[in-house]
Amino acid sequence: MAVDRARAERAIREFLIAVGEDPDRPGLTETPNRVARAAEEVLGGYDDDPAHHLRKQFQESESDDMVIVRDIPFSSLCEHHILPFTGRAHVAYIPHGGRITGLSKIARCVTGFARRLQLQERLTSQIADALMEELDPQGVLVVLEAEHMCMTMRGVKSAGALTVTSAVRGAFRKDIKTREEALRLLGL
């Protein structure tokens, strides 16, 4: 879904007028174009199948030990207020049959799903489900920690408050000791 830049520019111009601004004043004349171009980048995840990154796999015959990638930075836009939320993703999985993926592919998957209008809860599940579907691992654990500008800038104005979500699949759901080990290694 490519951004219709001309339509976005018209909408931003109307938005500026709606909030009492003059879109023709110096400083704002290029804002509609800048916002439309930013939307192309920030919402570029619609043009991507983030799970496809995980299809780059390797076979390690003896690999069935836990793999953890933590502190993956991400930014997204809350679909309720179209304000940013930013944070870190932590991903753990246990390979099945020696099927592993490149570590950067996990980060690309996180970024791909984040570059859409999102809810943190949905984002967490999408990442976990993509890993389960593409890697067929024994289990997946995804934890996202994020600060939401809709809570920081407006409403309750709780700067610094973090929202933590998790998605637990397979062995991490069934085996409490495995889940505890992963959470300990993640520092959570």
Mean pLDDT: 94
Give the neighbour order of strands across the main sheet. 5-2-3-6-7
Output the number of helix runs.
7
The gross shape turns out to be elongated
Counting helices, strands and paired strands, the structural category is alpha+beta
Major sheet, described briefly?
Answer: 5 strands, mixed
Distance between the termini: 37 Å
Order of helices and strands: HHEEEEHEHEHEHH
User: What's the β-strand tally?
Assistant: 7
Q: What Rg is obtained from the alpha carbons, in whole angstroms?
A: 20 Å
Unreliable spans: none
SS strand fraction: 25-35%
Helix content class? 25-40%
Features:
two-stranded antiparallel ribbon, 188 residues, 39% helix, alpha+beta
Describe, in plain words, how this protein is organized in 3D.
By secondary structure, the protein is of the alpha+beta class. It has 7 helices and 7 strands, in the order ααββββαβαβαβαα. The chain has a 5-stranded mixed sheet with strand order 5-2-3-6-7, with helices on both faces. It has a two-stranded antiparallel ribbon with strand order 1-4. The two termini are 37 Å apart. The model has no long low-confidence stretch (mean pLDDT 94).
Précis, in short:
With 188 residues, the chain is an alpha+beta fold.
Topology readout:
Layout: H1 5-18, H2 31-42, E1 57-59, E2 67-78, E3 84-94, E4 99-101, H3 103-114, E5 117-118, H4 120-135, E6 139-148, H5 149-152, E7 163-170, H6 171-174, H7 176-186
Helix pairs in contact: 1-2, 3-4
